Amino acid sequence: MGFIICCDFDGTVTTKDTIVSIMKRFVPDESAPIIRQILADDISVQEGVTRLFALIPTALKEDIIDYAVNEIPVRQGFQELLDFARAEDIPFYIVSGGMHFFIDPILSRFRGVTEVFANDVDMSGDYMAVNWSHPCDEACDSQACGTCKPSILRAVNHEASDVIVIGDSLTDRLAAHEAALLFTTDKLTDYAEDHDLAFYPFETFDDITIQLKEVMK
Length: 217
Ligand SMILES: [Mg+2]
Ligand SMILES: [Zn+2]
Known about the structure:
- The protein is an alpha/beta fold.
- The protein has helices at residues 18-26, 28-39, 45-53, 61-71, 78-87, 100-107, 149-156, 173-177, 187-194, 205-216, and strands at residues 3-7, 92-99, 115-122, 129-131, 162-167, 181-184, 200-201.
- It has one domain: HAD superfamily/HAD-like (Rossmann fold), CATH 3.40.50.1000.
- Zinc ion (ZN) is lined by residues 136, 140, 142, 145, 148, 150-151.
């Protein structure tokens, strides 16, 4: 039995949340109350993020891509972990509640991602409209994930491989419960501690590569 890697994007591949950074840069005043409501759990991530992108004129698409590519830092060691996964024949999936239009350009600098699961944005109107491309399947207990990471894993993991989950926040918690190996940073570390999940904390992708080399030798 092999492994697959399920790696979050925002706050995991990147060192800060790309959506929040984009909102603060392009629509700071209008987005702030919505971000507060999401963080306070007053509205769902799906509803909040839909409302956030609806603030952004589609004419700003290229400016946002430029900003994402040039201003959003990627965590140290990402290419080296991709190289390790490829050498070990471990599929590397990016599973994100973010948007393809800014994730894919950031990832284009790196080699070895097997597939990116994220959301599309309809740019045909004056303002951005998020298409939630990966809803909950029937087996999901939440039915309110926005982007349902466990459903994506069920769809992709045909061979019942052990799943290596890498993430930073509560949007990774359902996937974390299904992980054979769990790597956490930030809020997901607190969650894993509180729920007695076995986990390895990380700061850089080098930490993960070193640990995986130990596990796999
Ligand atoms: Mg994240
Ligand atoms: Zn779900």
